[in-house]
Structure formats: structure tokens, C-alpha cells
Specification:
Elements: E1 10-14, H1 19-30, E2 34-39, E3 49-52, H2 58-72, E4 77-80, H3 97-125, E5 128-133, H4 147-167, E6 172-179, H5 185-198, H6 202-212, H7 224-235, E7 246-249
Parallel strand pairs: 1-2, 1-4, 2-3, 4-5, 5-6, 6-7
Length: 258
């Protein structure tokens, strides 16, 4: 790929102020794209155009889209990165209707809502790329840790595939990236919290969690920049014939074929 293969492209990265989202935003900007990032609160520093928005709120999504249309005329690349594990572990008996709705709204409906509002412009210009950031949890749920989260990501995978098929002849590509354990600040906090609740050291906590998923053959977590580099390739002209596929980036940890 050329270093500036995204020159003149407009990209929106949701949850683009930290972790994987920030790494993606920085990567796309380095490749020449004009990058817009959104999150609920503005960071102290950002190199990109920031718009505050809660994507679980339909009115704020509409306002976000309006500001982008007025300022940039639309977008060419959408990275649906907002999401997270917000519900307790412990299995079905610990999860209430509120928990289930909360996880589905954050990890599935927020992406559907934003896709729906930006797609008319992409279809009109007969070009665009949408990336949904999912998780390998969508294929490998841990009932005692992430049941609702895993279900929401599995639903996102299915939605993304269906949308890709619908849009394949309209010039819009839709792909899914499913990271495994990635060394973000949020992941480190989660691992530390898990270790404290289990009465073990953080190192033991990491080993215990990794053992539940069969371990990571490459022996380490991914770096956010590695996920960003995959996303860069998928939105670039080099990936023009790719759509509807889920790309796991997990160091070989998923113990399945495909």
C-alpha cells in the first residue's frame, strides 16, 4: 500500500479517542484521510476533528450526522468502534433485562443506527466502506464473564454480513474486524479488576482468563496499532474486492476453523 492511499477520504471513527479507536484514527490520518472522531466526552488532546455524541441516543446521532454533513459534506469511511463489556459476569442468573438491553444497545443498535443515517450518502456517491469492530467473543462466549457482550457481538457479526450482501452491488463494502485480547487501558483495568475479585495476582488473572479461551498461541496480547493496520488495509483500495467477511486478529487463539 502507498503511505497516503487514503488521501482525500473522509473517515469517522466512533470511540476514537482511546484504545483501538484512537489507534485506528491515527493510522487513517497517517494514510492521508481527514479523520473525525466521536465519543461521549472530549479528551484533553486530540489531533483529529472531535464531535461529542452518545451513540445510544438517536437525537445525538442525528446531530452528529448533521454536523458532519455541514462541515465535511459526508464521509467515505465509517469505523463503528464504540462498544464494550458493561455487564456483570456470573451467567444467566445475574443478567437482568436492563443488562441485556444495555449491552445490545451499545454493541449492536448504536452501529445499526449510525449506519442507517450515513448510508444514503454513501449509496448516492456509489462508494464507501463500513467496518464493524466486533470481538472474538462473538464466536467464543465465556458464560461466566461476558455472556451478554458475546451475544451482542455475535448479533453484530450477523447484521454486518447481511448488510454487506445488501450493499454489495451499490458500491459500499461492509466488513467486520474481531480483535482478541488487546493491550488497551480498558483491558488492563478489566484484567486487574478480575484478579482482585478472584483474589489472585494480575499475572495469574491473565493466565486464568487466557486458559479459558485455550490460550494465545503467539503468547501475547495484540497491540492496538496492529488492529489499526488491519483496518487500514481493509478500507484501502487494495481491499476493493473484499466485503462481508469477518477478520479475527487474535494471535491464533480461536480454536475453530473459519
Amino acid at each position: 500500500m502507498e503511505l497516503k492511499d487514503l488521501k482525500e477520504k473522509r473517515a469517522l471513527v466512533t470511540g476514537g479517542t482511546k484504545g483501538i479507536g484512537k489507534a485506528i484514527a491515527d493510522e487513517l490520518a497517517e494514510a492521508g484521510a481527514t479523520v473525525i472522531v466521536t465519543a461521549r466526552t472530549k479528551p484533553e488532546q486530540t489531533a483529529h476533528h472531535f464531535i461529542a455524541a452518545d451513540l445510544t441516543n438517536a437525537n445525538e446521532v442525528a446531530a452528529l450526522a448533521k454536523e458532519i454533513a455541514n462541515t465535511f459534506g459526508g464521509i467515505d469511511i465509517l469505523i463503528n468502534n464504540v462498544g464494550g463489556l458493561t455487564t456483570p459476569g456470573g451467567g444467566h442468573s445475574t443478567l437482568t433485562d436492563v443488562h441485556w438491553n444495555q449491552e445490545l444497545d451499545l454493541n449492536l443498535i448504536s452501529a445499526i443506527r449510525l449506519d442507517r443515517i450515513v448510508l444514503p450518502q454513501m449509496i448516492k456517491q456509489k462508494s464507501g466502506v463500513i467496518i464493524h469492530i466486533s470481538s472474538i467473543a462473538g464466536k467464543q462466549a465465556l458464560w461466566n464473564l461476558n455472556m451478554a457482550y458475546a451475544v451482542s457481538k455475535a448479533a453484530l457479526n450477523s447484521y454486518s454480513k447481511a448488510l454487506a450482501t445488501e450493499l454489495a452491488d451499490k458500491g459500499v463494502r461492509v466488513l467486520t474486524v474481531a480483535p482478541g485480547a488487546t493491550r488497551t487501558e480498558t483491558m488492563v483495568k478489566f484484567l486487574n479488576g478480575y484478579a482482585i475479585s478472584a483474589g489472585i495476582t494480575p499475572e495469574e488473572g491473565i493466565k486464568q482468563l487466557m486458559a479459558q479461551t485455550g490460550g494465545i498461541p503467539m503468547g501475547r496480547m495484540a497491540e492496538p496499532e496492529e488492529v489499526a493496520q488491519l483496518v487500514h488495509f481493509l478500507v484501502s483500495p487494495s481491499a476493493a474486492y473484499l466485503t462481508g467477511t469477518i477478520y479475527a486478529i487474535d494471535g491464533g487463539s480461536l480454536p475453530v476453523v473459519g
